[in-house]
Structure formats: structure tokens, C-alpha cells
Amino acid sequence: MNRNEMISRIKHADGPWDLIIIGGGATGLASALESASRGYQTLLLEQDDFCKGTSSRSTKLVHGGVRYLQQGNVSLVLEALKERGLLRKNAPHLVHNLPFIVPNYDWWEGPFYGIGLKLYDMLSGKHGFGHSKFLSKEKTLEHLPTIESKGLKGGVVYHDGQFDDSRLAINMAQTAVNQSATVVNYFKVVGIFKDMDIVAGVLAKDMETGEEFEIRAKGIINATGVFTDSILKMDTPDAENMITLSQGVHLVLDKSFLPGQSAIMVPHTTDGRVLFATPWHDKVIVGTTDTPVKDVLLEPRPLPEEIDFLLSHAAKYLTKDPKSSDVLSIFAGLRPLVSHGTGGSTSAISRDHTIYISRSGLVTITGGKWTTCRKMAEDTIDQAALVAHLDEKPSVTVNLPIHGYHNKPETFGDLAIYGSDAQFIKDLLMRSPDLQEKLHPKFTAVAGEVVWAARNEMARTVEDFLARRIRALLLDARASMEMAPQVARLMAKELGHDEAWIEKQIYDYRKLAREYLII
Asked: Which domain does 10 fall in, by range?
């Protein structure tokens, strides 16, 4: 996956593309994969790095949605449970089973949550990850040795999926390219043009060179998440806003706060959300909040009250109360919720996806979640192909393995997240022993992974690599700052940049990473 090659394809395109997809998050990438695998000529344009926004800032869960079951949205749960199973089948190197335990402190909680989770098992059917069961107090403490034991009656264990969101995004981009899609990051759509009031293409700018392009297409898909309304207004300046924003914040702690292989799930917090404490990449993620916000930002910031909420709720359920000084990183993401004029709490707004077709033929897909992105993409391409008058072609993504597919990724040790690509990285390290040097004592990543990301995963900046290719920014922001100089030098050598670029990259990255710390 090479950016220069992708841009060359744009410059030498013979006639209009079948579909242009705006947005390189989960929904856009899934749509590009869906479109290209059907045989449509597909172009995806992303203004920043792939998965820069919401899609890299999730709770890292592939799940049916226990809370949606509480709300009575059985159809959404059924769809999500099926898609959860398909994701594990098609990307086993990134999606795996994780046991969740609901601790019970009142006599009624065990039977109440136990019955609900048995229904969750039943709805999973053949796509199930494991059966739920009741746990005694002793067994609960065995699984969760740092859970607050005072008043603990027992627990209920159930099974859901966990994954690495931005790693899956990169692999989906690679899969789309393998299916002949063209995908480009740092390529911003700045306008939409029309023929006879029907969308006919986009005006786009290469953010690295400043070069501008007029690119024609038979159909255009707006899959820009929290930026949905800005694209809608390019098409129709007086269009009503579709999106209500909700901010979710997660904090990252050392593994000692939750040792073992099980996660904690608290079904109902004071703001009405489910709270998770989950092991992830040898750290612990605690989240999430649900705070209504107004501003659309590529780098949203946690609010002080959100940090206090997570620290205080973690302290309620863990024997070791986390303090601000214990937080290794804290990250925020914006959820694009489809507004129906409901008002009030954003936790009450449906997470179902919505497809909207404007009078000009612009197809907008928004809402939904990572787990259901394949189904969202299937529905979107069905509609977009119809609007663009493309030949009808069936979806094939139910049985399409994602790039990196490998049933036993653990055999690759520290390179497991790369799946089948791990062997190619090993070969690179064997040819260049100097690339075997670790980037930081607190991480397993080595210099060769920087080279690999620049050559094969379209990493263009230090942030791309540390934030989304190896997740260091989210796991330990301070340590990631210490890695920045070596990463910058390696990337500069690979991409042909000078010393000034190196210095600016280090400065920009450290400035960004400080925002992930509680100071």
C-alpha cells in the first residue's frame, strides 16, 4: 500500500470512478472494501490519516451491545452479534474473545443480570463467543483479584470480543487495495461539483503537496463521521444538521490495577452508561463517558469532570484507587449520533446507522459502530450503486478474510498484531539486524516496524506510527514522547525528508502527546 502509487492512479484515471468515498474511518474503509470487492472502481479520500478520529478512540470492543438489550433494541443486538462473529472469523489476528464479569453487590443483581446475559447468549446463536454463568464470591475474586470485595456477593461472567481498532482499519485499507480500490490519506475533499444538479465529482487537495484535483465519479458517498454535516453543506448549503455529538473519554492504567485476563463491566453508572475496565495490550482501559459537546475537532480533549468521573468510578470497583498520577494516557473520541430531535442525554440516542440520499444523489452514511461497519457498508453500497446506475452486484464480504488473516497469530510473539504480515517483518529484521533495536524499554516495538509502516501501511508522520500503527500514544504518552526522535529519523530516511522535517515532527508530536497526559 503505497501513497505515491495511489496518487498516480488518481492522476491517470481513465474516465470517472464508479464511486468516491469521502472519509477513511471504520465506515469509509468498510465501504471502500465493500465497493471494490464487488468490482466497482473505487476511490477513498481521507483528509488526515486513516482512522485518525473516532474510529481509533473506541473502547476496543467488538460487541453485541448489552445496553441495547436493556433498552429493548433486540434487532440491533442480533445484527451486532452476527457481525461480531463475522469479524472474528475474518480477522482472527485482531479480534478475540474476552470474558467480562459483572460484579454483584446487591442480592437482586445476580438473577437480574444473569437472566439478561442468558438471553444475550441465546441471541448469539452459532456466532457465540462463550456461555455466561454465575460466579461465587470466591470465583469472582479469583478472576478479578483487585475487585472491591466489601459487600461483594458474586458475579456473572459473559463473553464478548476485543480488538485493536486502528490496526483493523489499516488492514481493511490494505484489503480494499488488494481488491483494486485506491485509498489515499492526507487528501482532503474541499468541494463537490455537479452536472445538471446531480453530483458528478469532488474537488480535493493533496495536503502534503498542496496540489489540487478535480475528480469525477458516478456516485459519491459521505462517510465522514463527525464531519458529516460539513460535507452535506458542500452539497446543499442550507442542509439541516444530522449529527449530535457525544464525547467518550477513556483513561489508561498500569496492568497492576486489573491483573488477569478478565474485564469488569458495570451495567449502569450515574450518567446511564455502561462502564468497562478492560485489559488491552498489557495495560488497562477504563471508560467511557457520554458527554454532549458542540465542537467538531480532530483532537477532542477530555473535560476535567470526565476525568473525575472515570477516576471516582474506577475507585468504587478497584481495591487500589487510581489517582491522576497513575494515568498513563487519556484519550477522547467524538461519537456521531444521528439526531432525531430527542434532546436530553446522548446516551438515549440510537446507535443504529442511517443512510440519507440527498436530491443531488449524494449518499450519506452515519451512526452505527465498529462492530457493524461491514453491514453498514453493505447497505450503503447497495444504495449508492442504485443511485449511480451501476450494474447490480452481490456483496461478498461475509466470507472475505481481512489482510493479515491468521488463525494462530500468537505464534508470531510480539508481532502477533500483524497476523500473516509478521513473517515479512521478520524477514526484514533478518536482512537488517540494526532494525531489531527496540524503540523503548517499555514497548516491544522495534525499529523495523517503523520502516514497515512507512513502506507498507502508508504511515506519513511520527504521529501516524506512534498513535495508530503501534498504539504507543494511547498506552503510555510519556514513553511515546521519548520514542519520537528515533521514529522521526527512521521515517525521514525511508520517506526522503530532511533534518528540518525531523525537528518539526518531534516538536509537533511532543506537543500533541502532552495533551494525552493529566498534568
From this structure: 3-54+167-241+348-399
